[in-house]
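step 4 of 6: structure.
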Amino acid sequence: MELKSFLKNLKLMSTDNLLKQVAFIKEIDKLKYIQRKTKLFNSDRPENDAEHSWHLAMMTIVLAEHSDKPIDVLKVLKMVLIHDIVEIDAGDTFMYDTSKNHTNTEEELLAAKRIFGLLPTEQAEEFIAIWEEFEEGSTDEAKFAKSMDRLEPLLQNTSNNGGTWAEFGVPYQKVYDKKKAIKHGSTSIWNYAENLINDSVEKGILKK
Amino acid sequence: MELKSFLKNLKLMSTDNLLKQVAFIKEIDKLKYIQRKTKLFNSDRPENDAEHSWHLAMMTIVLAEHSDKPIDVLKVLKMVLIHDIVEIDAGDTFMYDTSKNHTNTEEELLAAKRIFGLLPTEQAEEFIAIWEEFEEGSTDEAKFAKSMDRLEPLLQNTSNNGGTWAEFGVPYQKVYDKKKAIKHGSTSIWNYAENLINDSVEKGILKK
Ligand SMILES: [Ca+2]
């Protein structure tokens, strides 16, 4: 291939990628309409998934030093920024809803394929792989990302007189069992979180 | 110093950092209440700064390949995630408000010092430096971050029949002059954006 036609093809490919990427960027705007059960700090206004994802990204940058293992912060950021995008199709599942399976439901996998599938092939595959890595939770990056995802609502509920624990009558042991996942990412954050949970019982905003 | 007391001090320092970081994490929740003039895609619901920052972070990950210069994506992500946090104290300034100076106002600098100042000293200094680098806009990372910040409302306004351009009567030349900054980050994204602006004139949603 001549250099000129090679460069022309490269430009066409780049434009083709850009159009797909813009379609994806428009589609994910819908994450701003997906409401969580958890409320903002000191508030009764529900948080949406885009706000939640931004907050987890900020927490990742700020708290990365507390990870027990060395982590690729850029990878964790990608995880927390995209982890809830499947909820555009599949909806938010409340952490303490026992009627639903929380790991990688078929509905969520279809959603991942449809939404990330708007991107150029290579990028779509990368995003699906990152989302699956988060869901699986076995790499050091996924463990830290999940500890951020558990910590945010803990901070919110303790600032909201029990928040969703009070609203839905979630008892201490269930909260403790869910939050324990924080320990897989960071011992020091878990120590802090465990204290917060125990304090909540003492304050009467979490029932033992 | 003995090893034991050295380790004890290290643990105390880590706990001290964590408490400051949690205070910061709670404070920045307020970004979710700062409303922008721009509306969500195909919508008349205003976007807030946390949603906006999440969207820019997603755009950064997705569009980084179009940067004219090699960029440190993690650095750009930090920039776009924190770039509006000063607005918690200083408020949102509308891009086309000619009565206000948009670069690094004194009010914003005070806000940066107060809010990032909640973090441990080293981290506070890092965040203030990143925010200043973004505001200055001279590094390759800042240029790309700013092109994301200009592109999002362009995509929103064109999906909203002119959006804030129509609402506040902003003419073609003003829009063009502001959006031109996209070119400093990416020629290919600028080519796309320029077409979008010209199409908007043809469609009658932007007045020439
Ligand atoms: Ca979720």
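step 5 of 6: annotate
 - Chain A has one domain: 3-203.
 - The longest helix of chain A spans residues 3-27.
step 6 of 6: archive
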